[in-house]
Specification:
This protein has eight helices and eleven strands. The chain starts with 6 loop residues before the first strand and ends with a strand. It is 32% helix and 34% strand. It is of the alpha+beta class and 221 residues long.
Length: 221
């Protein structure tokens, strides 16, 4: 969810035959906190740190969806957080968060999980994660930068956010480990790191540009 910060995100998803559990560690770089605080001048005044509020609002939206339970967070450092929640089925959770009857981002069955994100179904993700539609962020997202090269994008970030911006973006990495209820039978777009676990890892800029689809597939027996 917090792919959009200049940060390191490490998530562990554990699938069982009946539930899905997520545990995420988020470390936000000080540069991005400064950027958020600059944007906060245009938001309603609050004494709560802006990232604290973002994390709190996220866990509240999970609980309000009706498809997630035990959603909570812990602040583990000045700019770091630990977020957990359970859900019966991840695809159904995305539908509830997006207020839709269906979605094409994630497909989950008894013995497989697949994910596909491209510019054509990005709107579904925006509905599930309202922050993506925030005017302060939208200009940095893929819909505003279709066809832009990585070099040109980083030049834009340098112009808009200063000399620390490009490095903060390129240093940001998202890693998701997925443990499934069986032995891995087939996988693509991920690294197999155990008999029942795969790792999906990507740099933040891949998401910000969506020049190529982001996707993976894993099945088990």
């Amino acid at each position: 969810m917090l792919l959009l910060a200049s940060c390191a995100v490490s998530e562990n998803i554990v699938l069982t035959d009946t539930t899905s559990s997520s545990s995420t560690d988020i470390e936000v770089y000080p540069f991005f906190i400064d950027v958020l605080n600059d944007f906060s001048d245009f938001l309603p005044s609050t004494d709560e740190p802006i990232m604290d509020k973002a994390i709190r609002d996220f866990t509240s939206s999970l609980e309000a969806s009706g498809s997630a339970t035990d959603a909570s967070y812990e602040k583990t450092g000045e700019n770091s957080y630990h977020v957990v929640f359970d859900a019966d089925e991840l695809g159904a959770l995305l539908e509830k968060l997006g207020g839709a009857d269906s979605q094409t981002l994630l497909s989950q069955g008894d013995d497989y999980l697949s994910f596909h994100l491209d510019i054509d179904n990005y709107a579904e993700l925006k509905k599930a994660i309202p922050f993506l539609s925030d005017p302060n962020f939208e200009v940095y997202g893929p819909e505003y930068n279709i066809g832009m090269s990585e070099t040109d994008y980083l030049d834009m970030i340098y112009f808009l956010l200063g000399e620390e911006g490009p490095g903060a973006i390129t240093d940001s990495l998202i890693t998701i480990d997925i443990t499934v209820p069986g032995n891995i039978a087939e996988c693509s777009g991920v690294e197999k790191i155990g008999k029942d676990t795969v790792r999906y890892s990507f740099p933040l800029i891949d998401f910000l540009l969506l020049a190529e689809p982001m996707e993976f597939f894993v099945s088990w027996d």
